[in-house]
Write a structure and sequence with these properties.
This protein is α/β, with parallel strands linked by helices. 41% of the residues lie in helices and 13% in strands. A five-stranded mixed sheet has the order 1-3-2-4-5, with helices on both faces. Strand 2, helix 2 and strand 3 form a beta-alpha-beta unit. The chain is globular and about 40 Å long.
């Protein structure tokens, strides 16, 4: 496990811009675990409140709460694209540019499952460009994005999150 953490730290230090745009074990301070890997689309324009990219406000707090409630706290959370921008769908060129970095994160973590944060992210970015390159033994599913940009309530977001995590854990 320590080897995986060290390899991820080295990988994230290689980022230009700074490593804050790399992945992180979320929430901070929880023991790291490798069962799940959560993948978002791209970092928001907002600067994070701590050293990780996943602490920029209330929506990130909801993600942390759901992870804790489902025994997934300490999982690695990352983005397909590692560059801050206005909220939008990344271009194919942006995804292509960052894809090998994401695949290296997957190879280091070797998760049981990848949970994509957002249906649009899954349908329009992950499924088309990333999933074909993911080893077949890794389960892939999606949950509503925790910022509820699609108009979902917190209860709906939490219910879908619970369902997906529980389904993945079934033998």
């Amino acid at each position: 496990m320590d080897d995986k953490i060290q390899r991820l730290e080295e990988l994230n230090r290689s980022l230009k811009p700074p490593q804050e745009l790399g992945g992180a074990f979320v929430p901070e301070g929880c023991p790291e675990q490798f069962e799940f890997m959560f993948v978002a689309e791209m970092p928001s324009r907002r600067a994070p409140k701590s050293s990780t990219n996943f602490s920029a406000g209330a929506p990130d707090d909801l993600l942390k709460k759901m992870m804790k409630n489902n025994g997934a706290a300490g999982s690695y959370v990352t983005d397909i694209v590692k560059k801050r921008a206005e909220a939008r769908k990344p271009t194919k060129a942006e995804i292509d540019y960052w894809l090998n970095f994401l695949l290296e994160e997957v190879e280091i973590i070797q998760p049981k499952a990848i949970v994509v944060l957002g249906k649009r992210t899954y349908d329009e970015s992950f499924k088309l460009f990333v999933e074909p390159r993911i080893p077949k033994h890794i389960k892939v599913d999606w949950v509503w994005h925790y910022s509820q940009q699609g108009g979902k309530t917190n209860a709906e977001v939490e219910q879908k999150f619970d369902e997906v995590i529980n389904r993945i854990r079934k033998p």
